[in-house]
Amino acid sequence: MNETGHGRTAACYRFEQELQAYMEGEDAAFVPAHARECAFCRVIVEDLEALRAAALALPLEEPSPLVWSFVRAQLLDDGTFAERANFGAWFRQLGWLHRPLPVATFACLVVLGCLLTVPRNYPKPGNTSPISTLPARSAIRSMAFMRDSATLVQVVRELEATFRAREGSLAPDLKATYENSLISLDASIRECSDSLEREPDNSLAHEYLLAAYSQKAEVLSSALEFDEGR
Amino acid sequence: MADCREQITKKRRAIPYGQGLVLYLLVLSGSLVAADNSRVEKTFETSPNPRVTVANARGQILVRGWDKAQVHAVYSVVSSHVEVDTEVIPSNGPADKIHFATHLLDPLLSGRDQTADYSLDVPMGTNLEIRNTQGSVRIEKLQADDTTVESVGGAILVSDFTGHLFLRSVGGNIDVIRPSGRVEAYSITGDLHFVSPTTSKLRGSTTSGRILFEGDFSDGGDYSLSEYSGDMEILCPPSASFELFAKTDRGKLQNEMPMTIRRQAASPMSSANSLFGTHLTGKATVNLRSFSGTIRIRQR
Question: CB of B105 within 8 A of CB of B137?
């Protein structure tokens, strides 16, 4: 056996290459044979075998859910298995739904579209005016309006909360423009709401109130899109 | 005496040096100013009906139609930290689409430093999409299928436009002069002004701004104007033929046009004031709404 100046020989390099197979139980007779002759390599094998024995002696513990989630994520990334198709998986693929701004704006527009397309006219006999929208049961109509508008109001409220949190980043003149428009819209919302409380069948107030909320949603969305695009 | 002569001589020598220094500083500052107000001029060969988009934060945008199959663009920026990106599609041959976008190299840049001004001469059939957040937009003489202009605080002025026009400014005024085709104009606090439209369909809405409509109504046209608290004024010729539906909740209705009235005065079911009637043969349909503003219909 020839030894180098560092005590490592060609046989030692062969030992390193076959060591992993030996530790995994494969047929690698050279490893234990060389370990009997080389003190340096013998120490390596003994250390690894001691570690394996100690690991086997450890009590079994269930990994935390966090560990399993990491493992699962890694396996998914590796393409080891595909998720079982279900509604949740399909929903998660709609990444755009995770962004609150377009979701809120879309929901607002859907609600507004429903409200505008649902027939509200109860034509009276002999009344040919296309403008007449006086409902036959104004109390129920106003209750329906309040129920439907609740979603719209909530969407606008959330958009406004986000806007208020970010308005400091807007340029002063831009912020002033948005503020003025919101003041104007809020005034119209207040007045229309007051009108509807006094006159639940006021169709004009109803239309203006819905329009004001819709416009407010558009203004807030515009402000937030501008802020996100900076 | 010798001292005085020496002082005078020194002053005479100093004067040319002083003038030279001032001249040097003037030239230097001029070159610096010129460098900052960089002006770029480009010409693109296009198809007859290209689509041109402009995205800008601040500054003036002017677009004029001409009879060449070219887009001639002149743009200038105030700050060297602002650049204009241009994308032409396709990259070879006549362009079908040209995109201009103002890009801030320094995100902390604010105010006037963000300014980029555009002047575009485009084919008459160009479809436009312009977003100018805090700057004005002016469009002249186009015959396009479809044009959209959006701003937050900027004013919008469109004249002699044919096609579908969609205009929106949160706080800026909107003026539309001699349009034909379909017009939609929306603002929250800005005023709307329509002059001599020959459109088949016109929609205008503002919350607290004013609406002024000057002109005739096209036969078969559909006009809908709505404002919340501002005043609305309609100035039309005696020959205008239209069917009117006007309604306000808390405002006033003032009509000077002789009309065949169908219903007037407050409805017993609400506080609304309404006026439904026909002037002449009622060929156009005019729908006017206000919540608390005054609606005036007068002869021009």
Answer: no
